[in-house]
Predict the structure.
Amino acid sequence: MTVLFASDLDQTLIYSRRSMGSEVKPEDLIEVERYEGKPQSYMTEQSQTALWELEPDTVFVPVTTRTREQYERVTGIYEGNEPPQFAIISNGAVILENGEPIKEWSTDIRRQCVSRKTIIEELMPVVHQHFNEDWVLRVRQAEDWFVYLVVDRARFPEEKIGFYTDIFREIGWSLSLQGRKLYLMPESITKAAAMEYVRDRINADYVIAAGDSLLDLDLLESADAGLLAAHGEAVRSDAEVSDHIIVTEEKGIKAGEEILAKVADISMQSK
C-alpha cells in the first residue's frame, strides 16, 4: 500500500528562529536551509530523523508556495544528495519530477489563468489601487504566477483583511497572510490539484497532508487525513475544517515533531 505524505514546509516542517517558539534547545536544532551564507530554517533532530525514517512505502512530497530557487535552498529535508522524486512548488503552479518541471502541468495551469484573466498583468492595477499604504514594504512577483506583499505587521490593518479578501475574490484571487507576507493567489493555482496529479502518478492508496495556512486548507481537505499546525493562520482565522483534519496540540517547531510522529503512526495503521 502506497501512502503519499504531502506537506507544506515553512511553519509546518521547517521553522525560522522567529517562528520556532522557545521550547527547544539550540543543541536539538538541525539547520536545513542557508541563504547568502546565513542559516535560515531549522528542524529538530527528532523531526529530521522521523522524516527520514518513514516507512519505505510512504512517499514524501514537499508542497510549498516557494519558487524553485527558494525551494532548492531547503536541502536538509531529504537524506543524502537526492531530492524527493516529486515536489510541488509555487503553491501548485509547478510540479518538479526528479528536479525538473513537468511542462504539461504548468502549461495547463497557465492556460486556466489566462482564460480566467487571473494573470499578474490584470492584477497589478488593483494591487496598486488598494495597497498603496506605507505598511507595504515591497511587492514581489513569484515567477509570473502570483504576487506577494512584504508588509510591516505592526502597522498592517488586521481589521481590513476581510475587506481585502472580498475585493480580490471578486476578480478570482485569494488572500493569505503568513507572517510578513500577504499572498495574492489565482484561483486556478492550488496545492490540492497538484497533489492529486502526483497521487495519480504514483498510484497512492492513501494521502496524509500537513499544513498551517489558509493556502494549505484545500490540500488538507483533499487528503484522507489532514494535520493542521495549531499556531498557523488557518487556526487563528477560525476556518472551518472537516472531521478528518486534526489540529496539533503543540505549536512552533514542536508541532513539526508532532506532525511527523502522527504521520508515522498513520502510515503504520494504514498498512
In short: The longest strand covers residues 29-35. The mean pLDDT is 94.
